[in-house]
Specification:
2 domains, elongated, alpha/beta, 7 strands, two-stranded antiparallel sheet, Nucleotidyltransferase, domain 5, 9 helices
């Protein structure tokens, strides 16, 4: 069947012809064959133009052209004001196929799949800043944001240890192939606790899309708009942002305090548990695992 390009006016005329044929008892398959279009095209036309008049189709086309012109003007104004212009994202198919990454395992419930990644930034004096971000992929909740000058596999183990005590262990935890996550100590400890470590393909950050999306918002909302002078200031601001982002005002079993950064004078609300971290005999300390 040859491919033809039809104007909205032609499509409406053909749809009206189809309605007449159907009213005369013709089958749907006979109609789209007579119109010389595919079945998918026929139903797409009905969805987009069904019940529309010719003048309405012309007006719709004019509005689409006007919208395209306005979009270009808005992008130009954004650039003139130094704002970030959102990039058009390419279409990608659903990728829930193989075993091991975002395209391999879809989160189905709370604590089913966690993911973590590192954010790299610098303080105003040029010194490095590392932030370990851990999220629950199903609830999209950020569980921890650990800030330090340097983050190693023992730091990763310490953060996971505290979360496993307070929240319980997930079934899977997803990450890239950084040495902080692939170290034998991390692999062995997770295996001993029955947590499956999932590693994405090298150079494929979109396979860890949940945490990458959260990090993107974190950069846009905080890092790109703040000058961080000291490590302590970064810790206070990052933790305050994490808690405010997930709605700390609704927390019921906690006590609210405010931490003040001595360098900047900024205050951020911090929620402290009333009863501390509950003990659990089923999560051994990483230091006790035989390496």
């Amino acid at each position: 069947m040859s491919r033809k390009r039809f104007s909205p006016e032609q499509i409406i005329t053909m749809l009206r012809e189809a309605e007449v044929l159907l009213s005369q008892g013709a089958q749907v398959a006979e109609v789209w064959r007579k119109l010389e279009v595919s079945e998918q095209t026929y139903y797409r036309w009905r969805k987009e133009y069904g019940g529309m008049r010719v003048d309405q189709a012309k007006r719709l086309k004019e509005l689409e052209q006007e919208n395209a012109r306005l979009k270009k003007r808005v992008e130009r104004i954004w650039r003139q004001e130094g704002l970030k212009v959102p990039q058009k994202q390419p279409k990608r198919g659903r990728l829930w196929l193989n075993d091991g990454s975002c395209i391999r395992l879809r989160p189905m419930k709370k604590d089913h799949v966690w993911s973590y990644d590192l954010v790299i930034d610098r303080t105003s004096d040029g010194r490095p800043l590392r932030i370990l971000v851990i999220i629950d992929e199903f609830t999209r909740e950020c569980l921890s944001m650990y800030v330090s000058r340097r983050i190693t596999s023992p730091d990763v183990l310490d953060q996971l240890y505290g979360l496993f005590l307070s929240r319980g262990t997930p079934e899977h935890i997803r990450s890239d192939n950084g040495v902080e996550f692939t170290a034998n100590a991390v692999r062995g400890w997770l295996k001993d606790l029955g947590v499956t470590a999932l590693y994405i393909e090298p150079g494929s950050p979109w396979e860890n899309g949940y945490v990458e999306s959260y990090i993107g918002k974190f950069r846009d909302k905080l890092l790109n708009g703040e000058i961080l002078d000291t490590l302590m200031e970064a810790k206070v601001l990052v933790e305050g942002w994490r808690r405010s982002w997930r709605g700390i005002c609704r927390s019921s079993g906690s006590t609210s305090v405010r931490l003040r950064c001595a360098d900047s004078g900024r205050c951020w609300p911090i929620i402290m548990p009333r009863h501390g971290i509950p003990r659990s005999s089923r999560v051994p300390s990483p230091s006790l695992i035989r390496r």
